[in-house]
Specification:
single chain, 22 helices, DUF2075 domain-containing protein, SLFN_3-like_DNA/RNA_helicase
């Protein structure tokens, strides 16, 4: 999305108003509905003034294009500064990552530096890596760039940084070669870099064409898995994803029996947890460090097994992708690294028989290093035990060093952090600034249906494109087809169609089987996976009365194990169980409503709840 796009001449005039910070801020507010902090305004004023001096050379055409804070398609990332123009018939785009840094330290991690931020030192991607990754992402997502042979030239400008042997160290040369870094005395060098590619102005609206051009089909982890297992880099890891990956890799390589480590990585839907996890699994095993990918639910593993069928023997696949109850009797330190995805779903005991001691403790004991990817807002069962403080406490008791990081880069829901915040707001999970769905960073297809039959038809139509649309529901309808395969769980008289719960025919492969759109998914086969479009049927376990979002766990089917024991729990300890049940029900729908990459359609069984959602969309 284009936030600010003008000619060089108009950009220079905006600088001369001495109000460029507020000009950019007003553009961001108008385009996205997001407010900008005072620190960011000062950053705009500082960095953009430096850039204006760089481009003030008269040989840089006055009608070249200047774009600021360009939002990369299908992500939440923004490019600081872009210059567009031509070299003869060749259309060129220069991507510039702007930094106000004055110092950075070298790390032992590929493409990662340590620098000082407002609240202390922190590791982050090298500016050249950032600029290169943004250019790579734009190429990956945008068909116009490729089909119309538009050339991208990334670089970084650290206008306050006095040269040293850190930021330009040979260790980072691979990325600096791809995206040159210019420091405080290098304004003329940056100017020459720009002049090399921008010799005529932008008379063909290059950024407008890119922004409104064709978007390449979204890659899913499942579809890319076969190539990733072979060691191919299918996804560009950006910013915090790169830092988490390199940190986990370093800890895994350094860990031994007397130096065990655990890395806890917090991140919401679509922040790349699974992508980082799979890349880490492949790289560590490539280096001869025995590693396994662990999930509590079987659905992700079933999907991966199906996608990788024929690539490796099933016995080998089942040694790579394992359940969280695998380590009950495992010897200590037998595995180099365990990578636990969806760690919030871990349970204290394993299975219906409640076997073992403690799943987290068993994982920590059996590995030299472990990585827990966790989103506590996706806790959807009363048995879900994987919380950050629990992992920390158990690790410390076992003498294991704890490291913590966060993932914030967003790829789910068309890259809109705003949609995720809006979902949190309308479900009253937490107060956010996103009250208006129309102000999202990117177009995200959200619709409310009064007729469940129309919802089904819409999902069926979307699924005809590429088999990436599914219906899901809260567990408020009996699973009659479990005992009687000819029975329907969602019946004609209520919905206008007959459908069954997904576990009837397709099990964990429901989300990818070409015929499984005929069945309705539940939280257990949707969590941790994604589709392009998701249709969510909201049952009467979540209702709205007088604008307040309430939960009624008694509307859940009696066979629902996610709230098992709630009656006894409320009777014996209501102060614990009431907020827990509210969390479980709300998190269930939050998770279901964020499975879609491109759109979410909903139907509410309760009319007042439907009216509430419609009002919140106005």
């Amino acid at each position: 999305m284009i936030v600010y796009n003008k000619t060089k001449e108009d950009f220079s005039n905006d600088i001369l108003t001495n109000d460029i910070g507020n000009i950019i801020t007003s553009h961001i507010l108008e385009k996205t509905g997001n407010k900008v902090s005072p620190n960011e305004i000062r950053s705009f004023e500082n960095s953009l003034s430096y850039m204006e001096r760089v481009v003030s050379d008269p040989t840089i055409p006055i009608d070249c294009g200047i774009s600021i804070e360009y939002h990369l398609p299908q992500t939440s990332k923004r490019v600081d500064f872009i210059i567009t123009g031509k070299d003869g018939d060749q259309e060129n785009v220069i991507i510039i990552e702007l930094k106000q840094w004055q110092h950075a330290d070298i790390t032992a991690k590929d493409g990662v530096v340590k620098t000082r931020f407002q609240f202390g030192e922190s590791e982050t991607s090298h500016p050249s890596y950032q600029a290169w990754s943004y250019a790579a992402l734009l190429t990956s997502f945008n068909a116009t760039v490729d089909e119309e042979s538009i050339s991208l030239y990334p670089c970084a400008y650290l206008h306050n940084y006095v040269p040293d042997n850190n930021i330009t160290n040979e260790f980072y040369s691979y990325y600096i070669d791809k995206a040159p870094v210019f420091l405080k005395p290098d304004a003329v060098k940056l100017r020459e870099f720009i002049k090399k590619y921008i010799k005529q102005g932008d008379d063909s609206n290059i950024m407008f064409r890119i922004d409104n051009g064709k978007i390449k089909p979204t890659k899913s982890l499942a579809d890319s898995l076969k190539s990733m297992i072979k060691g191919n880099k299918e996804f560009i890891m950006i910013d915090d994803q790169k830092v988490v990956y390199e940190t986990a890799l370093q800890l895994a390589l350094q860990s031994h029996e007397k130096n065990k480590n655990v890395l806890i990585v917090e991140g919401g839907p679509g922040t790349g947890k699974s992508v980082v996890a799979i890349n880490l699994l492949v790289e560590l095993n490539r280096r001869g460090k025995m590693s396994q990918y662990v999930t509590k639910t079987s659905a992700p593993r079933d999907v991966y097994f199906e996608k990788l069928k024929g690539q490796k023997r099933m016995t080998e696949l089942k040694s790579l992708f394992v359940g969280s109850g695998t380590f009950i009797n495992a010897p200590e330190n037998v595995i180099n690294t365990l990578i636990i995805d969806e760690a919030h779903r871990l349970t204290e005991k394993t299975g219906f028989l409640k076997r073992g001691d403690n799943q987290i403790k068993e994982i920590l004991n059996s590995s030299l290093s472990s990585v827990f990817f966790i989103d506590e807002n996706q806790r959807v069962s009363v048995d879900d035990y994987g919380e950050v403080y629990v992992i920390e406490e158990l690790a410390k008791k076992l003498g294991i060093t704890v490291h913590k990081q966060k993932l914030e880069s967003q790829f789910r829901c068309n890259g809109s952090d705003g949609y995720l915040a809006w979902v949190d707001h309308i479900l009253q999970i937490k107060e956010t600034a996103n009250y208006d769905l129309s102000s999202l960073d990117y177009e995200f297809d959200f619709k409310i249906f009064d007729d469940p039959k129309k919802l089904q038809e819409a999902i069926y139509k979307k699924n005809e494109i590429n088999n990436k649309a599914r219906l899901v529901a809260g567990y408020c309808w009996k699973w009659d087809s479990k005992k009687d395969p000819s029975a329907y769980d969602f019946k004609e008289e209520e919905f206008g169609f007959n459908m069954r719960w997904n576990m009837t025919d397709y099990g964990g492969k429901w989300i990818i089987d070409p015929n499984s759109v005929s069945e309705i998914g539940c939280i257990h086969t949707a969590q941790g996976l994604e589709v392009d479009y998701v249709g969510v049927i909201i049952g009467n376990d979540l209702i709205v009365r007088d604008g307040k979002v309430l939960v009624n766990q008694s509307e859940r089917d009696s066979g629902d194990r996610t709230v098992f024991g709630w009656k006894k729990g409320i009777k014996e300890n209501p102060d614990y169980w009431k907020p827990l049940l509210k969390t479980i029900v709300k998190n269930t729908y939050r998770t279901l409503m964020t499975r879609g990459m491109k759109g979410c359609y909903i139907y509410c069984s309760d009319p007042e709840t439907s009216r509430y959602f419609k009002k919140m969309c106005e």
